[in-house]
Amino acid sequence: SARVMKKAVAYLLPFMEEEKRRVLIEKGLDPDSADQDSDSQYAGKVLMATVKGDVHDIGKNIVGVVLGCNNFKVYDIGVMVTCEVIIEKALEYGVDIVGLSGLITPSLDEMVDVAKQFQIRG
């Protein structure tokens, strides 16, 4: 099912890009001169990661696609990601939301640890 989803997303991406162009034009902006790296054109920025100890990422991938379709900039930093890297990348990208993924029971403990570290670091 993950392979099918990835193929479907690859098929849909050109349509999504065309929709973004249309929205920029409706706002009176030139899509060809718009800064593609600018965050101002997004509804928000989201970091997605599957926590250390887990490789199950289909849920993360589905959520990432849905967020992307709703004009969020999604930074997917992969699977088996340590707490330190998650926090480092969240700060580097200046994200609004951090989404953590995992399927196996120990992943829940890892997610709690990541959340605690975010609280400790302010």
Strand order in the largest sheet: 2-1-3
> Count the helices. How many?
4
**Main sheet: strands, sense, barrel:** 3 strands, parallel
Number of strands: 3
Note the overall shape: flat
* Amount of helix: 40-55%
Cα(first) to Cα(last) distance is: 38 Å
SSE order: HEHEHEH
Rg result: 16 Å
Structural overview:
It is a single chain. With 122 residues, this protein is of the alpha/beta class. The chain has four helices and three strands; from the N terminus they run αβαβαβα. The protein has helices at residues 2-26, 58-69, 83-93, 105-120; strands at 44-50, 72-76, 97-101. It has a three-stranded parallel sheet, with helices on both faces. α1 packs parallel to α2 (58-69) and α3 (83-93) crosses α4 (105-120).
Q: What layout of secondary structure does this protein have?
A:
Elements (H helix, E strand, L loop, with lengths): L1 H25 L17 E7 L7 H12 L2 E5 L6 H11 L3 E5 L3 H16 L2
List the main descriptive attributes of the protein structure presented here.
52% helix; alpha/beta; 122 residues; 4 helices; flat; 14% strand; 3-stranded parallel β-sheet
